[in-house]
């Protein structure tokens, strides 16, 4: 008697991208990837959506766990990842039928372990781009290279064949009432199962939609909070500017009130004087009244003109400040561009490139001849060429300067009693090292005089 072979389940992992299924691998390969044996550079620095699938030898899914996995910048899987995929698949709830009956489905909205919910994701169950349909179709392609189960009808032994009587070969048996009731009960049961499965699928889809709506609401609340904070900061700045303007206005109003009081006191004083003058004569009173009114009008006009001038000066200062700010900003941008250009094309960089091309820097100095200046000595030479030439001649800079003056005009530099220079032609000393100040630049008479004075 032959025994029926028990169906085998295969563990696989399917990778999802924006365009559907992007990669499939068996679970041992997935474990090797987790251990760091292999990496996936195409998923570097990404959080990838994956599905752990248990499928039979007919490439039909029996369980599915939708989970996330992070990859570093080198394409290595997160070393701290330890999601119990097999336990989640065993304890998962019922899901849609993908060809071999309802599957066990574990996702964010249907997670058997609540604290693992944050590591799972919900599949798209909409009419367009249904992730479960994409998973089913991808498994049917058999990219994993699994051995399929032979679906051909198995031959039976002759001893197990049961031959019906000849009178029932051609006519089927008449259905009885019991058979009809069994058939109706079976169809009702299948209908209930399909209705329950459809209800579960719609409930799962509603939970996924609710989860997406909650996430969208959270993002909107976060954006609204950020906008509210920015508006509050802007309101605070405007209130601060308003307080400053109010303080300035209060100061001006206080100053104006003080001036008005002073003018009022002056007016009262002049009114009293006017009344006193009225007692002495109408003509003098008229003159004083006219003078008083003119003086008051002049003072008021002066004050008004002064305040208008202050306001105009403030307006001009504000306009000038804004214009200067714009000019300074433009100047800063221009200087930044020039600095960048100078940094890119600096003299030092140009000299280094010329030195790399074999260019040699040669100068001529009397007494030292033609000097080849290394690149690292160019700055020192530019700072003081005569000091550089004196060092090459092994003399001090002072001696080299005196020798250079003697070399250019070989004459006696001694002073005569009348204060003029001797200027008698003398022999030129060709080498700076043999030049002696007070000897080489004097004629024989002044040399002897110098020695006598030195001896005395």
Approximate strand percentage? 5-15%
Low-confidence stretches: 1-6, 151-171, 450-456
Helical content stands at 40-55%
Query: Secondary-structure element order, as H and E?
Result: EEHEEHEEHHHHEEHHHH
What characteristic shape results from the CA principal axes?
Answer: flat
Global mean pLDDT: 81
Oligomer description: single chain
Order of strands in the sheet with the most strands?
2-1-3-4-6-5
> What does the main sheet amount to?
6 strands, mixed
User: What would you report as the Rg, rounded to the nearest angstrom?
Assistant: 53 Å
Describe this structure in a few short sentences.
By secondary structure, the protein is α+β, with helices and mostly antiparallel strands. Among the domains are: about 10-145, no CATH class; about 280-340; about 360-455, no CATH class. The chain is built from 10 helices and 8 strands.
Explain what you see.
There is one protein chain. With 456 residues, the chain is α+β, with helices and mostly antiparallel strands. Helix content is 52%, strand content 12%. Among the domains are: 9-147, no CATH class; 280-341; 361-455, no CATH class. It has ten helices and eight strands. The strands form two sheets. The protein has a six-stranded mixed beta sheet with strand order 2-1-3-4-6-5, with helices on both faces. It has a two-stranded antiparallel sheet with strand order 7-8. A hairpin with a 2-residue loop joins β1 (9-17) and β2 (20-26). α4 crosses α5 (282-344) and α8 crosses α9. The longest helix is centred in the middle third of the chain and has 102 residues, at 177-278. Residues 199-280 form a coiled coil. Keywords: Coiled coil. This is Chromosome partitioning protein ParA.
